[in-house]
Amino acid sequence: MNSFARHLRKEWLAAVLFLAPSMIGFSIFYLFPFATGLLYSVQDTTIDGSFVGLDNYQAVLSSGSFRKAASNTLLFTGVSVPLIIMLSLLFAHLLNKKLFIRGWLQTAFVMPLVVPAASIVMMWQILFDWNGTLNAWMQHLQAGRIDWMKSDGSILVLIMIYIWKNVGYNIILFLAGLQSIPKDYYETADIEGAGELHKWRHITWVYLTPTTVFVVLMSIIQSFKVFRETYLIAGDYPHDRIYMLQHYMNNMFLSLDVQKLTAAAALMVCAILLLVSAMLMLERRFRSYME
Amino acid sequence: MALLRKTMLTVIMGAFALIMLFPMIITFSNSFMAESEIDYNYHLIGKMVDVAAGEKNEFINLKLIPDWVSLDQYAEVLIHKPMFLHMFWNSVCIVLPIIIGQVAVAALAAFAFAKLKFWGREKLFIVYVMTMLMPFQVTLVPNYIIAGRLGLMNSSSAIILPGIFGAFGVFMLRQFMLHIPYAYLEAAKIDGAGPLRIFYSIMLPLIKPGMAALTVLLFVDHWNMVEQPLIFLEDAFKQPLSLYLSRINEGARGVAFAASVLYMTPMILLFLYAESYFIEGIQMSGIKG
Amino acid sequence: MKKMLLIVLATVFAWAIAACSTGTGNHGENGVAGGNGNMSNIGKGEEQSNSNDKPGSPSGQQAGLGRPSTTEKKTVVFSTFFPSNYFKEAKKLYEAKHPNITIDLQYIDSDNAQLEENLEKFVKTTGTEMLSGKGPDLIEMDQLPSDSYVKKKMLANLGEIIDRDPDFKKDNYFTNILNGMQVNGGMYGLPVGFFIYGMIGNEDAITKSGVPFDDSNWNWAQFIATAKEMTKSMDKDHQYALGGSLPEYMTTQFVNERFATFINQEQGKASFESSSFTDLLKQVKVLFDEKVVGPEARFPLFRTVQINSPGDYIRELRQSEFLSGGNAYGSKLYSSPSTDQQHPGGSFRTYQTIGLNERSAVKPEAWDFLKFLLSEEMQAKQSGAGFPLNKAAYAKQAKGIVEKGSVESDQPIGPMKGKSFEITQQDIDDLDHFLIGAAYPLQFKPSQIDEIIAVETKAFFTGQKSAKDVAKLIQNRVTTYLNE
């Protein structure tokens, strides 16, 4: 037995010890429910259910509203997530530069995070209601009123609220990421006479890979969470532009149809799994570079 | 020249910052309106003015400065609604253990995922990530069954325990640890330090900015949590403040702004404090790097 | 500044940890909020339920439920949204009679400001409990989506239980209500009371007009035509054919009358974006514009009423005789237009409908308590909140009121204050006719489609949006609903 193998085994043992506390709780509160949820999706009832194969999946896929919800969610996530990543990266860079009152500015950008749902909903209504301020201005400009939340424009409002609320979250993460890039890398590059763009591409961007992976996934998760506010504004059955998978799943839950709910969730997870794998592949390249 | 650039940039960022702060400013200033003024300004929300019956079209009156400053709302919330402070306290008692627990547990696990090699590392990690993406409703029923089995129903532990073991912290700290070059750890290894020693005396100090960010984000996430307490805490005495502000219907509109201000205060304080931590973080990695 | 913040935070932190760990145990007893706060609090029976720990055995008792235990200690969990004195009283009496059984009455005490939150909580929690195989033994279904509960087989078929229980004599109850409540041949809830719906009409004016009509079988269009004919020669104050109705709700009634025209549930298709719907909207608007129907009518020929009790009936009927200034007239209760002319009959709405959890471990006891809630003894105590389902209890109520000979006005102010209305056996006989004729259940909560129509059409009737825009929105939202 050579020392390399012994070393590996030792590391494996250490990994188990480090993971144990998390794994125990995680299995009980997340892994088991997750697996049970998946199990429900191939059964007929939640209690003592019997196996029904892919019936639930078929039912979900044949639902026009599910397809609508899936395409809306894809559209919303597909547009708003790249947009928020770009914006937050830009703001993080700017906030990382020399500014007056930088601390205060950083704080201002993350403040929307703390605003409670109730306040957001109030603001939303004040601005976008049929009698809202925005319509008051439009009327003033002789442009006619729009019932924002009940029009095709509703998704734009949603994207706006989403970015407003979550851009701070991502800025924190990017700032922390930017700040953990060792300064000497830049100094070395300066000595070599590298340009700004070159430095950004070969140092900043590379070093931000793990953060970016994290930010992308978090943004997706946050994009699902806009549901709470949307629900409070527009209810169970909003205009079909903003009818998302979360609406579908929530309605399925309220009508106690856990089978369709879990089947829909499983389909969603499959789609995201592809994305996660791709992201992690990207990250692996970064890792091999680090090692 | 540099000064001009700095000023310009500050002005531009300041403008954006104002947009970001706008709803907070409104919330804050409107919290000093009397209930009657709130009602007068905002009673048209969700209503249809009957133009057909000859009523004049009116709009919601977004107002920045109250007609006269009044502490009515605060008095109403703090004095006449004893539940408010109680729920505030409940929130503190739920959120703090989650933060402490999750930061500790997650740091350990993240270290294993980021810097130790073991079979199935990637796959296990994907499983962690996937659970985060699951909508709440999907795991609700199994979670409910488990909470019942463990005797956690109607106790704040039903929220704290799952909170501690959430995958978010593991994921986030792992990403931060990936940044730390192996060279740092190798040096310690050659000196004969074990994994625990490396974790404690090298890794932890290096990821302080990450832990500060995690603390802030965990605080925000759990302070705003609505669904879990709604289902798992049957007893109204045990419910956190987030449920108080989960909806504002007409009846409660009058005090909504003051309640929101009070609700936000702890988070704002934490942000102000943690922000100094980020700066500290820079300096440190600057020295070490 | 930063240092100060740090110190403050650290202090709060340390204090919190100390206080949280010691303070959690006794919130219940020391009554921090003492129940006088504005938040909800869930009333609990004195004993924690432990009956639910054992898994239920729904198949074990196919042939009848068997007798409730008289010796074994059992707890029946009964969950309602609103607290109710009727249930509290029943719990007390039942527990006194059955010392081994505890009724754990759970309800949510909420003020108006928190009503929606609490309703969300109640609906979600109950759903989760039921899905996880626990859940209360008896559930008040009024606020819950009972269709889903039935579809998911979570409620016991009370129809079957009744058939197998010789103690429960169907004839003792209003069988038309029991039959009306059937869903796909089963019955999944029993109401403690019910309301009936009809129209109070100005009998004097109707007779004087001499227009022939048959209120036992008319639809809305016929009603409108008839009433218009009747009011033709009347003065301004009496021109309205129907009062107390809003255009939004009028529209939902018209839609339900021609349901198949607008909705094809099988194919998940809605046809609101059609001239037939926009015409309907305009038609309703004309009715209101021409003051045929109006909420603000002073002396409408008819007005829709919900009748809650014999006393309520008399009050609704007689108060028009006490109008001052020569406006007094005699009234009569007529049938509302029906939506299905093939099967005429009045509508009713059940109140405090109680379902039995299919997986309950104490089914015999829960059923026994449910029967007690419907017994003559309990039902005779029912006052105001609906007619009792138990016929004997109703008869007793009616007899009492006739013997007394009059009903006091319930209005604390206004022209009717302190008036007392006479009552005779004839009145009760008339009312009986309506009670027995009620055949169609109105859902306790309006259907999702009705709700969408009512919300969206409001914008049209207030003149804010065009009929076309409104139709488009309804089409959009209803289609989503139909295709889930």
Automatic annotation (TrEMBL), chain A:
| Name under which the protein is recorded | Multiple sugar transport system permease protein
- Cross-referenced InterPro entries, in alphabetical order? ABC_transporter_permease (IPR051393), MetI-like (IPR000515), MetI-like_sf (IPR035906)
Q: Which UniProt keywords apply?
A: Cell membrane, Membrane, Sugar transport, Transmembrane, Transmembrane helix, Transport
**Stored Gene3D superfamilies:** MetI-like
Domain named ABC transmembrane type-1: which ranges? 70-280
Annotated Pfam families: BPD_transp_1
User: Which GO biological process annotations does it have?
Assistant: transmembrane transport
Look up the domain of life of the source: Bacteria
Q: Name one GO cellular component term.
A: plasma membrane
Instruction: Give the bilayer topology.
Output: Multi-pass membrane protein
Concerning its family, UniProt says:
Belongs to the binding-protein-dependent transport system permease family.
Give the principal location in a single coarse category.
membrane
> CDD domains from the xrefs?
TM_PBP2 (cd06261)
Please list the coiled coil stretches.
none
Q: Where in the cell is it found?
A: Cell membrane
Q: Where would you find the membrane-spanning parts of this chain?
A: 12-32, 74-95, 107-128, 155-176, 205-224, 261-282
From TrEMBL, chain B:
Does the record's keyword annotation contain Transport? yes
Q: Does the keyword Transport apply?
A: yes
| Pfam name, any one | BPD_transp_1
- What InterPro entries does the record tag this protein with? MetI-like (IPR000515), MetI-like_sf (IPR035906)
- Annotated ABC transmembrane type-1 domain residues: 88-274
Stretches that traverse the bilayer: 7-26, 88-113, 125-146, 158-177, 198-220, 254-274
PROSITE patterns this protein is in?
A: ABC_TM1 (PS50928)
Keywords on this record? Cell membrane, Membrane, Sugar transport, Transmembrane, Transmembrane helix, Transport
What this protein is called in its record is Multiple sugar transport system permease protein
Family from the record: Belongs to the binding-protein-dependent transport system permease family.
Q: Which PANTHER family match?
A: ABC TRANSPORTER PERMEASE PROTEIN MG189-RELATED-RELATED, SN-GLYCEROL-3-PHOSPHATE TRANSPORT SYSTEM PERMEASE PROTEIN UGPE
TrEMBL record, chain C:
Q: Which residues form the signal peptide?
A: 1-18
Compositional bias annotation for Gly residues: 26-37
Q: Which Pfam families match?
A: SBP_bac_1
Q: Polar residues composition bias: which ranges?
A: 48-62
Report keywords, A-Z: Cell membrane, Lipoprotein, Membrane, Palmitate, Signal, Sugar transport, Transport
Q: Where is this region: Disordered?
A: 26-71
What InterPro entries does this protein's entry cite? Answer: Bact_solute-bd_prot1, SBP
Q: What PANTHER family is this protein classified in?
A: ARABINOSE-BINDING PROTEIN-RELATED, POLYGALACTURONAN_RHAMNOGALACTURONAN-BINDING PROTEIN YTCQ
Name of the protein described by the UniProt record = Multiple sugar transport system substrate-binding protein
Q: Which organism is it from?
A: Paenibacillus endophyticus
Task: List the lineage, top down.
Answer: Bacteria, Bacillati, Bacillota, Bacilli, Bacillales
